[in-house]
Specification:
Helix content is 17%, strand content 25%. It is α+β, with helices and mostly antiparallel strands and 327 residues long. It has a single domain, classed as Alpha carbonic anhydrase (Carbonic Anhydrase II, Roll), CATH 3.10.200.10. Strands 2, 3, 4, 5, 6, 7, 9, 10, 11, 12, 13, 14 and 15 form a 13-stranded mixed sheet that branches. Strands 1-8 form a two-stranded parallel sheet. The longest helix has 21 residues. It is globular, with a radius of gyration of 21 Å. It starts with a helix and ends in a 25-residue tail after the last helix. The structure holds 2-acetamido-2-deoxy-beta-D-glucopyranose (NAG) (3 copies). One 2-acetamido-2-deoxy-beta-D-glucopyranose binds next to loops. This is Carbonic anhydrase-related protein B, isoform A.
Length: 327
């Protein structure tokens, strides 16, 4: 096994050299399977070493018995106004990116969508949405709950706009990124905003294709819940930067069979070299190690049988507040 890895590594380094000579983008050089798959991302490019060496990586499997109730966690806030942008088949994923001023000008100037509250100490600005999905219904999501994977997951990314100038600048900086994860469950009736995205899929059949999406509400993608789980992790594709505060919402939204079918018709490559269908674009779960997963779900008060199912971060109260009232 180690020999094989060493061999692959040499091969990849060789390929990497060639690639520099050919000035091809690194982006073309990682995949979700084979010798350029997740186990090798950190070996392909020295700038991606965290993908193999990092100890705060994402996604993770969320184990209910590891959840810690934290009474300091507030509800998440995401602005509800609509924005326009581009949906792109990148060959790795389907991505919606908020229009910059040039793109937004189709629709007039647009107000940025702020993301704040929850576990966040700063105000973040919405940047893009990534879609991960399986080629069959058993797999697709990156985050899993008690080992259960969903057919798809939508990740909403924002950057810390109080500290940093833009998304790419924030990617490798402290407290740079927030990732809001929404798990997708198969259902008969889709979330309406999700449909606005999947309605464009026919126009982005091949890698590199993009289409304009008008007036999407990011907040409208969210399920109807204030409950979430949060932990510190990384981006789930190279370069695996460990700068992401993850917020996984505790309720799925719904996607139909037809929408999943439309996603699975997308191709990774161009019309003359379509390569494989786009899908199964999920990174396997990474070790949690000693990271806590906090939640604002107070199982003590939400469980009807009164049994505490979740340990708490409530500290013991050593000091009772004294009365400051002067009588
Ligand atoms: C805005 O986005 C378009 C489409 O992605 C791109 O071609 C253009 O260079 C961008 N403009 C700026 C100022 O970033
Ligand atoms: C988002 O935050 C910026 C910076 O504080 C603010 O100017 C803007 O009004 C906020 N957007 C909304 C919709 O509240
Ligand atoms: C992002 O901000 C950095 C730092 O201000 C700047 O150097 C860089 O050109 C910006 N990148 C984009 C894509 O706007």
């Amino acid at each position: 096994m180690e020999l094989l890895q060493a061999l692959c590594c040499t091969l990849l380094l060789l390929l990497a050299r060639m690639q520099v000579l050919l000035a091809v983008s690194w982006e073309d050089w990682w995949t979700y399977d084979g010798i350029s798959g997740p186990a090798f991302w950190g070996l392909i490019n020295p700038e991606w070493s965290l993908c193999n060496k990092g100890r705060r990586q994402s996604p993770v499997n969320l184990e209910p018995q590891r959840l810690l109730f934290d009474p300091n966690l507030r509800p998440m806030h995401i602005d509800k106004h609509r924005i326009s942008g581009l949906i792109t088949n990148t060959g790795h994923s389907v991505i919606f990116t908020a229009g910059n001023d040039t793109v937004a000008n189709y629709d007039g100037m647009q107000t940025p969508v702020n993301i704040s509250g929850g576990p966040l100490s700063y105000r973040y600005r919405f940047h893009e949405i990534h879609m991960h999905y399986g080629l069959n219904d058993q797999f697709g999501s990156e985050h899993s709950v008690e080992g259960y994977t969903f057919p798809a997951e939508i990740q909403i990314f924002g950057y810390n706009s109080q500290l940093y100038a833009n998304f790419s600048d924030a990617l490798n900086r402290a407290q740079g990124i927030v990732g809001v994860s929404i798990l997708l469950q198969l259902g008969d009736l889709s979330n309406a905003e999700l449909r606005m995205l999947t309605d464009q899929l026919e126009r982005i059949r091949y890698g590199g294709d993009e289409a304009f999406v008008k007036r999407l509400s990011i907040r409208g993608l969210l399920p109807d819940t204030d409950h979430y789980m949060t932990y510190d992790g990384s981006t789930t594709a190279p370069a695996c930067h460990e700068t992401v505060t993850w917020v996984v919402l505790n309720k799925p939204i719904y996607i139909t069979k037809q929408q999943l079918h439309a996603l699975r018709r997308l191709m990774q490559g161009s019309p003359d070299h379509p390569k494989a269908p786009l899908g199964n674009n999920y990174r396997p779960p990474q070790p949690l190690l000693h990271r806590p997963i906090r939640t604002n779900i107070d199982f003590k008060t939400t469980k009807s049988n009164g049994k505490a199912a979740c340990p708490t971060m409530y500290r013991e109260v050593y000091y009772k507040a004294t009365s400051w009232k002067q009588n």
